[in-house]
Design a protein that fits this description.
single chain; 193 residues; alpha+beta; 7 strands; extended
């Protein structure tokens, strides 16, 4: 008995199956739709921020990555910095003028990548920049409790796009806070009145 030959599959190329751009159909083609206009990253960022803070009119600066710390003090542990759980892109925003007295308003916004709560802090008063942290103070809406926040901004070595990002943003935040405070004080409102 002779050994069986293995079966080989032959591929047949069909000459009658050619790709075609035109298909015969009785269904009419839908009308062409207008393509939405291209928007820049700045326009997209502004529209996202306006969903979180509708009074935002412009973005003054962006830091790609920041971490928000809160200063706590307990009798057992003493004073300490703790992560607040908010990390993400930091925006320094100009807002519409205050409706009551027409003063300038600015805010720092960190859109949280780790959760649903974002960080939004109106700028006013003294802003400190110490040991790589931007220190902000804010009071609750009731005016009872003062929170102290620390912003740490990621930066790389010289020559990268994020080099010097902490110091640049600290300076912009300090200037905006001073401008907002100066305007409030000139109207007779704010600290010391």
């Amino acid at each position: 008995m002779t050994p069986k030959k293995p079966k080989t599959h032959q591929r047949h190329q069909s000459a009658h199956l050619q790709p075609s751009d035109q298909y015969d159909s009785d269904v009419p083609l839908p009308p062409p739709q207008d393509i939405p206009p291209q928007r820049t990253n700045a326009e997209l960022n502004l529209s996202v921020l306006q969903r979180h803070l509708p009074s935002t009119t412009s973005i003054l600066s962006i830091a790609p990555y920041a971490v928000v710390y809160i200063f706590t003090s307990t009798p057992q542990n003493g004073p300490a910095w703790e992560k607040s759980g908010i990390e993400g892109t930091l925006f320094i925003c100009q807002q519409t003028l205050a409706p009551t007295d027409g003063t300038e308003r600015y805010s720092v916004v960190v859109l949280n990548r780790k959760g649903l709560n974002d960080f939004i802090c109106p700028l006013s008063g003294d802003i400190d920049y110490e040991a790589g942290y931007i220190i902000l103070r804010s009071t609750s809406e009731e005016g009872e409790e003062e929170n102290i926040w620390g912003l740490w901004i990621f930066e790389e070595e010289e020559g990268s796009s994020t080099a010097g990002m902490r110091e640049v943003n600290a300076k912009i935040i300090q200037e905006c806070a001073a401008r907002a405070t100066r305007n409030v004080s000139s109207y007779g409102y704010g600290p010391g009145t």
